[in-house]
Amino acid sequence: MDVHKLVKSFGYAFYGIWTAMNEQNMRIHIISAFIVMIAGLLTGLTKMEWVMIILVITLVIGAEMINTAIESVVNLASPEIHPLAKQAKDIAAGAVLVFALASVIIGLLIFLPKWF
Ligand SMILES: Nc1ncnc2c1ncn2[C@@H]1O[C@H](COP(=O)(O)OP(=O)(O)OP(=O)(O)O)[C@@H](O)[C@H]1O
């Protein structure tokens, strides 16, 4: 096993996370995630509820990162206007929205019964 190559790969992946964090949507997801985790700490969640919260947070952030990567590739491959470029970007953005909506529903299912 080439440890040097492995360490470099991790470095590139961390740099990818750092780069994605410069995106405005990504910042919104991260701030939302912090707010949800603080609410979770104040409310008191079971281990299983924390698993669900952490899962949906990472799914939304991961989906946003894949969306950003797709946007970059589309911008590179098709800087000019093209219907397929629009389709790729809109479907990728739609995927993030699907994850985000599901996470809101899961969050409400977890928090609302504890608050009311
Ligand atoms: N090359 C393109 N060809 C056709 N439609 C595009 C292209 N780039 C973006 N669009 C579309 O224009 C609309 C506005 O997109 P958006 O505001 O995200 O701009 P963007 O160019 O994708 O932004 P970014 O600066 O993040 O790349 C979306 O429906 C998107 O799919």
UniProtKB/TrEMBL annotation:
<dbReference type="InterPro" id="IPR033717">
    <property type="entry name" value="UDPK"/>
</dbReference>
<keyword id="KW-0808">Transferase</keyword>
<keyword id="KW-1003">Cell membrane</keyword>
<dbReference type="GO" id="GO:0016301">
    <property type="term" value="F:kinase activity"/>
</dbReference>
<dbReference type="Pfam" id="PF01219">
    <property type="entry name" value="DAGK_prokar"/>
</dbReference>
<keyword id="KW-1208">Phospholipid metabolism</keyword>
<keyword id="KW-0067">ATP-binding</keyword>
<keyword id="KW-1133">Transmembrane helix</keyword>
<comment type="similarity">
    <text>Belongs to the bacterial diacylglycerol kinase family.</text>
</comment>
<protein>
    <submittedName>
        <fullName>Diacylglycerol kinase family protein</fullName>
        <ecNumber>2.7.1.-</ecNumber>
    </submittedName>
</protein>
<keyword id="KW-0594">Phospholipid biosynthesis</keyword>
<keyword id="KW-0812">Transmembrane</keyword>
<keyword id="KW-0443">Lipid metabolism</keyword>
<keyword id="KW-0418">Kinase</keyword>
<dbReference type="InterPro" id="IPR036945">
    <property type="entry name" value="DAGK_sf"/>
</dbReference>
<feature type="transmembrane region" description="Helical">
    <location>
        <begin position="51"/>
        <end position="70"/>
    </location>
</feature>
<keyword id="KW-0444">Lipid biosynthesis</keyword>
<feature type="transmembrane region" description="Helical">
    <location>
        <begin position="91"/>
        <end position="112"/>
    </location>
</feature>
<keyword id="KW-0547">Nucleotide-binding</keyword>
<keyword id="KW-0472">Membrane</keyword>
<feature type="transmembrane region" description="Helical">
    <location>
        <begin position="28"/>
        <end position="45"/>
    </location>
</feature>
<dbReference type="InterPro" id="IPR000829">
    <property type="entry name" value="DAGK"/>
</dbReference>
